Amino acid sequence: MDLELTEEQKMIQKTAREFAQEVIQPLVEEAEKEEKFPLELFPQMGELGFLGIPFPEEYGGIGADKVTQCLFVEEISKVCAGIAASVDAHCDLALSAIYRFGTQEQKERFLIPGIEGHKIGALAITEPNAGSDVAALQSTAKRKGDGYVLNGSKLFITNGSIADFVLVLAYLDKSQGAKKGMGLFIVEKDTPGFQVTRKLKGKMGHRSSDTAELAFEDCLVPAENLLGGEEGNGFMQSLQTLLGARISQAVKTVAIGYAAFEAALTYAKERKAFGQPISQFQAIQFKFANMLTRLEAARTYAFKVAYMYSRKMPCLKEAAMAKLMACEAAQFATYEAIQILGGYGYVDEYPVERFYRDVRLSTITEGTTEIQCLIIARELGL
Question: What is the mean pLDDT of residues 145-151?
Fold first, then answer.
């Protein structure tokens, strides 16, 4: 693995950092308070090429690798995890699935405008009674004439109420089981029978990302909107899409930990106690030493897995390990950051309390910590 970034990667990293600090940062406070994603960001990011980093130039992308995309994810996640989550759901879930498995016509209708930031996408898998156990999904799609009648509900869907299209996982034939009986359907927002039943408010963290519950009642989806055009591939398509998203999630999680580390370090150098900055006390220094060591290890491993993914190397176990490491390192770092700030860390005058809340979701989304452990164990043959 080459640890040196290319000139193109350095440029994208720098541009992403400047965009995050100059454009996203001023929007964070209101977005978090109003629990509303700033929609103007999508076309802005599309114009700068951020939404098309891993996609070929023929579709309007940059044609870079996963490492390069993760550099972008890292920079915006340091500024706001909620906004990063909505961008990741659009790029790593919706657009990635369409690029990897969609027909040429589907790519032209959804991928290209998605890369441009003119259409927003989402992936809907989780249901009120089915999360980690994907085989327990209740949503169904029955063939009818030139389309499919979709019925069911989805919960905790990122971008759910702002999406122009949603990829919905549903059973075509339960007798075939999850692996062969499911399909992913591209449902456009104005399709009769599709509605956003509620936008979820009062989340612990990621308040600036859009999260919603969706319902499908006799929703007629055209046959050409079945992802890839062939029945029975939905489960496989979902799992492979989540693999790439899991790597981005690991990088995003570590970035939140770094943001907390940096905020705490700045505070410790300025805050005085007993006649000197608290950064001079060994107890505080040891906290920073342990925080940085864990974060650096998790970041390095996450980018190693991104490198593997870019070269189409098997990395199911490694992606699960990267996410597991990232969650543990970032939770430790945000906890210690709160401790270093003391009472100030517990109020929203400083951002570390937001980082602490935001990082908690990482142990749940794109597969819980328990699911990551299960994947690792299975890959070991246990």
Answer: 97
Q: Is the dihedral of CA 125, 131, 134, 138 positive or negative?
A: negative
> What is the model's pLDDT at position 131?
87
DSSP class of 337: H
3-state helix, strand, coil in the chain (%, to 5): 60, 15, 25
Any residues with CB less than 8 A from the CB of 301 and at least 6 apart, and which?
318, 321, 322, 325
Burial group, residue 8, by CB count within 10 angstroms (0-12, 13-18, 19+): exposed
Check residue 377 and give left, alpha or beta (phi > 0: left; psi -120 to 50: alpha): alpha
Contact 375, 242 (CB under 8 A): no
The Cβ of residue 373 has, within 10 Å, a number of other Cβ atoms equal to 13
DSSP secondary structure letter of residue 132? S
The one catalytic residue among 105, 213, 366, 370: 366
Closest CA to 227 of 335, 315, 98: 98
Active site residue 366: yes
CA 224 from centroid of its chain's CA atoms:
27
Cβ contact 103:277 at 8 Å = no
Q: Which pLDDT score is estimated for 16?
A: 98
Give the pLDDT mean for 119-138: 95
pLDDT in tens, 14-23: 999 999 999 9
Give how far the C-alpha of residue 377 lies from the chain's centroid of Cα atoms, to the nearest Å: 24
CA dihedral 194, 199, 204, 209 (to 10 degrees): 80
End-to-end, the C-alpha distance of the chain in Å comes to 29
Mean pLDDT along residues 226-238 = 97
Backbone phi and psi for residue 188, each to the nearest 5 degrees, phi listed first: -80, 150
170 DSSP β-pair partners: 183
- Answer yes or no: are the C-beta atoms of 367 and 218 closer than 8 Å: no
Instruction: Please report which helix (H) or strand (E) contains residue 245, including its range.
Output: helix 234-270
Task: Supply φ then ψ for residue 273, to 5 degrees.
Answer: -150, 140
Q: Collapsing DSSP states into helix, strand and coil, what is residue 143?
A: strand
Give dist(CA 171, CA 135) in Å, integer.
9
The contacts found for 21-24 with CB under 8 angstroms, 24 or more apart, are 21/79, 24/76, 24/79, 24/80, 24/83
Radius of gyration of the chain measured on its C-alpha atoms: 21
Contact 359, 238 (CB under 8 A): no
Token pair listed for 200: 């979820």
Asked if residues 24 and 79 have their Cβ atoms less than 8 Å apart, the reply is yes
